[in-house]
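User: Could you walk me through two proteins back to back? I'd like the raw sequence and the structure tokens for each, with a short line separating them so I can tell where one ends and the next begins.

Assistant: Of course. Protein one, sequence then structure:
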Amino acid sequence: MWRLSILVFATACAARSAESLPLQVSLWPPVQVVCADTSVAGLRLNLLYGDNVVMQGLDLGVVSGSDCCDGIQINAVNWVRDLAMGVQVGLANTMGAAEGLTIGGMNTARTTLTGVQIGILNYAEEAAGLQIGLLNSADTMVGLQIGLVNIIHDARVPALPILNWQF
């Protein structure tokens, strides 16, 4: 089920990234070099907040927003409305679906996670992979949770300390 969701998100993101520019420097939309409805394939510097439909490459700064991201994001807040692929590092990382590695204080995938979440609070609706944190939560999961409180809502034993798993 989650692989179909990732495929749908990836197809939609590829369609939106047809036209892209290599550099974005943003103070706050609309005060940015490239307008928000243009994709960036290269480097984006978010001095306060940057937003583009698709971001591919290296994304650095304070707050980052995009519909889709494929690359490395290092911001205080990474907000991807649809699909995030690659690595996200921040105090808060939130995305529609995630494929890759997410490291932060709070990591949320509203639909699917394929990969690893490392943080204080980790959540994914459907997870395939690994969650490491103080509080880990998934509605469904194929994988392992390591933390103080581990919750897999549809598991035989939904909450366990230290380790929880479902395969």
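----
Protein two, same layout:
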Amino acid sequence: MSEPAATPPPADPASAHRRAIGIDVGGTGVKAAVVDLATGELVSPRIRQKTPQPATPTAVIEVIGAILDELAADGYLDAAMPAGVGLPGVVKDGRLLTAANIDRSWVGFAGREALEARLGRPVRLVNDADAAGLAEVAFGAAKAVAGTVLLLTIGTGIGSALLIDGTLLDSTEFGHVTFRRRDAEQWISGSARERRGIGWRRWAGEFSEFLALLEAWFWPDLIILGGGVSKEHAKYARWLKSRAPIVTARFLNTAGIIGAALAAGGDPAAPPD
């Protein structure tokens, strides 16, 4: 499933270093596009396919490969263009050390090597919420913001990125802190709200408790909300409470794609994969 974009860019070798492929692997969808690294703009269609179930490495890599095959067939890729892949878990040395909303077989799997073999290009792995943080600090709501910025992506789970004066502390995974005697995302993620059948007012009250917990630890100067739930901000904003100001992510659900591309393109703020 793709969205309209501009016509394919000309095959100009000099422009290759200014573009990279961003891939965002979520609990329900795998999304990808080509990103202009100078502006953060998508310069190809944004293509989305459903996340396979179970989301094993082999199945997810094949979906990613199919999406990039489509982009290549339509003239948006070149052989030198690197790819960044945002994954839901702690990323170290090209592998996941934890797996949230993705199959446990990813843990310890040589993901970077397998993706490079399938895609035939350099690949960099990054935590999915960290990717969103890179996008927001480069072009969005966290750009030029001094102090501590906390970004939370709320959807199937809860991802987090913590930035201090624009520098990312990678793989924080605050969605897995204990809240009401369970992983926070099991109680107050977007999917948990739907599963529990509660309205926005009650959800916002409980999410405010979660924010108070994080604020007591990190004292952020700004809180940014992204992910699928951020698109519904008007439905719950009046009931959210925090010490720090709360804003929505500029890029909402595309931040992961943009940030993954930035990581692939060598953004100095990106953590090593």
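The two ends are 29 Å apart (CA to CA).

Let me know if you want the two compared in more detail.
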